[in-house]
Amino acid sequence: MASSHGSSPVPRPGVGGRDGIYHKERDPSPPRCRRPVRSLPDVCPKEPTGEGRGLCDGPSVVAEHDRWTVYSSKVNLPAALNDPRLAKRESDFFTKTWGLDFAETEVMPSFYLPNITREHFGPYLQETAQREKIHERCKTICPNKDDFCLLSVFLQIFLKPDFALEDPATFNAVLPWSHFNSAGGKSSRDVASSKLLQEKLSHYLDVVEVSIARQISLRSEAFFHAMSSQHELQDQLQETQRAVAVLRGRTADMDRIMCQGPLRALRTALARNNCVKLHNKLKLMAAVHQTQPTVQLLLSTSEFVGALELIATTKEVLQQELQGIHSFRHLGSQLCELEKLIDKMMVEDFSMYARSDLSRCLRDEPQVLEKERLESLVFGLLRQRKLDFLDIYSDEMIMAAKAIVAQAVAESVLHIEEIDTEVVTKLADQMRLMTFPQWFEVLKNVFESFLLFLQRIKATLSVIGNVVLEVLDSNQKNRLLEEAGSGASGQESSQGSSLLQGEAELAYLTHEGLFISDALNEAQQQQQAAAQDQSSAVGSRVQQGRAEAAGCDSASESFVGRDQNFISSENMMPTELEMNRVINNSQELLYTASDVSHDRCVKVLTARAKDGSLERLNSAEFVCLSQAVEAFVRDTEELCGRRSVSLRGALQSQANRFVHRFHEERKTKLSLLLDNERWKQAEVPAEFQDLVNSIADGRITLPERKTPGPEDRKPTEFLLVNGQKYAVVGTVLLLIRMFLEYCHCVNDIPSIATDMLTRLSDLLKHFNSRSCQLVLGAGALQVVGLKTITTKNLALASRCLQLVVHYIPIIRAHFETKLQPKQFSVLRHFDHITKDYNDHIAEISAKLVAIMDSLFEKVLSKYEVKAPMPSACFRNVCKQMAKMHEAIYELLPEEQTQMLFLRINASFKMHLKRQLARLGVVNDGGPQHGLVVVDVAFYTENVQALRSLERLDLNMAEIWEQKR
């Protein structure tokens, strides 16, 4: 056995220097042990990884293996004890720790020390080479005279631990070849030298033997102690062997009597559990094997949600329960492709559903077609995150809206014989060939169809929104349940980990045939009840999908099942933000449906109005059209909650054109009436009196025309307005009816109030300006052919203007009720019109006074104060005054007549005063003064004799010049 000291290296020839010193070379590679380390045979099975187990480092007391004997030792004990390289026996032989080979190995050099080679000593050897040669030469020339010292030197060579004759220096020191290699042949001297050398060698051998004997004598006590210790060790080993045999026998009996039966029962229970798991696994594999046929069966009945849930469940089973099974290696990719195919099928099926739902008869019931199918499709599309399905519905909706108009026109054309559909193929041309009642009936049918269309879309979108809200609510509930259950699951896991450590030993003892890690995993799985039943639960889910495919009689029950399974797969569900976006898109889609419906109705209007037919409607027809459009817009706003402006804008555009045409027709008509008006008093028919009476009651409406009958009232001379008589011309009566028509249109179409007010203002201004041109401007002389514009014509025109002025505040109040507060600024037009009319009336009054003024100037210029009295001049003046009074008395009210004659009288006094001043007549009481007094009295008596002028104060005293 080797001691703690390392073995001496063997000297190598040609390596050391000339002094025989051996220089050890260092191998640059890492040092190795002389013998490979061999472990004792393992008595406990190891895991395939090759790593030892902590539980199996020692020999097994249960299993019996090959017995160990001294012959199993790798090193012979006597050889180890008699190692000649050891200088001293070890005292801790039986107490020290031995290796597996029962021998010490070479101590590995430190990795922290540098590897010193011969090149490191190169500079030193070069410096000392010359001195070494001189030293060697001196030793040869001058040997040591002390033989004893020389002998000790030579003996030291043999006693060196690194003694090796293959070393040239050592060999030359032992055998001096110089004696054998001398010049010349062998002589007696050489023989003597050889004998002398042999004697020296023999002497050296004796000295070595003596030294060996001495060394043996020094170590004899330790040798004999070791031999005696070896015998004692053998005795102890035999006793230990017998004790171990007895212990093993007892242990075997305990194993046979107490352990094998219970352990066999535990192994049987584990084997049974393994068989049950294997059976469940095989059933699960059989269920998974039927996935594709089951999916195909579900797809044949359009059960997309069930098919998707079955695919998701199968993929989950493949990843968790059946991972690594070779026969199912391609099933995952096949299921992914099948899932993509289902996505396309759902999109196509939803498109077909939308097309069939929107294209069916609008009056069919129910409003939602196949509600369960729609819910299933929406659930499937949401599950697959196909959130753009509303775009498909929007496209189908637009196409269906176009078809509604085409169908309504086509159905109406079938009943109209005047329209040949083979010749006139375009819908717009067909609508323009219809009469207004026919076209209006088509428009009402379109409105009714679009209302039903929007109701159907709203019902469908309501179902879609309910599905989205249901899924969103379920997701929120599941999230709350997961948050609430996360704390409980953490407590259960901590309890399970505490129980797992206690059952680890039982799992190890009862485990056989598998790995210890598998046994620990099985013990952990036994602590989790949910994990034990996972395979059976998943298998039941797969079989449930197959059951759904086998029988889908009750749609509602299967839908509930799909709903529960669908909501459970949260990983595929859209986020809450995406769900809210879908809800908003559904509401926007309803708004879009309303806008599309209005746009299609606008096209119906524009197609009819292309040739200007809507502009040529009478007010009653246009009012009916406006009312129908307003009712449709109001209904769609209540239904969709969206204010669409396209149809209102189109109606407003048509209303503007209608107002323009309406106004131009009446303005043209008024111009024709004025151009043909002879400005004579016209009789007032009873219907116009009724019209005025209706206005007096506070209602500005057109009364219904009555059919003429024998009991009808006769026309009257005057128009009674609030107890006052108005002598009017026929044009004014029609003007009253015209502005009442304007007011009536505003009642029916409030949106055109401002435009209609502007047009009515223009009409009133036109009447005022044109009547002024014809009467005051004497345009009627050329237009109508009147010989002259009489005072009666002037008084009649003034009275007509006064009638219009009377109604302007009433018209203003009526329009004020139809305008918004921000539109009140347009009412200022009535103020301007009232001023213009009053100015015109004042001009007519001035014209009447001017007529008499010119008469007075002409007559009084010939006045002479002489008999007979009254003079002819004053008789002529009174005659003209009587004619004036007769002309205007019945036309103008009494107050206006008095005011007019007061102005005429003032004109008369002014001209009379001038004439008297020219004649030199003064208030002196003379004859001329008396004659003038007689004429003035005659004038005063004749004027006051006229009706309504009895109390007129003429005050003729102002005509006299004061006496000079």
Automatic annotation (TrEMBL):
Residues 20-29 have a biased composition (Basic and acidic residues). One of its GO terms (molecular function) is syntaxin binding. Keywords: Coiled coil, Golgi apparatus, Phosphoprotein, Protein transport, Transport. InterPro entries: Vps54, Vps54_C. Residues 1-58 are annotated as: Disordered. Gene3D superfamilies: 1.20.1280.130, 6.10.250.860. It is found in: Golgi apparatus, trans-Golgi network. GO terms for biological process: Golgi to vacuole transport; protein transport; retrograde transport, endosome to Golgi. It comes from the Eukaryota. Residues 724-853 form the Vacuolar protein sorting-associated protein 54 C-terminal domain. One of its GO terms (cellular component) is GARP complex. The keyword Metal-binding does not apply. Its main location: Golgi. Acts as a component of the GARP complex that is involved in retrograde transport from early and late endosomes to the trans-Golgi network (TGN). The GARP complex is required for the maintenance of the cycling of mannose 6-phosphate receptors between the TGN and endosomes, this cycling is necessary for proper lysosomal sorting of acid hydrolases such as CTSD. Within the GARP complex, required to tether the complex to the TGN. Not involved in endocytic recycling. Component of the Golgi-associated retrograde protein (GARP) complex, also called VFT (VPS fifty-three) complex, composed of VPS51, VPS52, VPS53 and VPS54. EIPR1 interacts with GARP complex and mediates its recruitment to the trans-Golgi network. Interacts with VPS51 in an EIPR1-independent manner. Belongs to the VPS54 family. This is Vacuolar protein sorting-associated protein 54. It comes from Seriola dumerili.
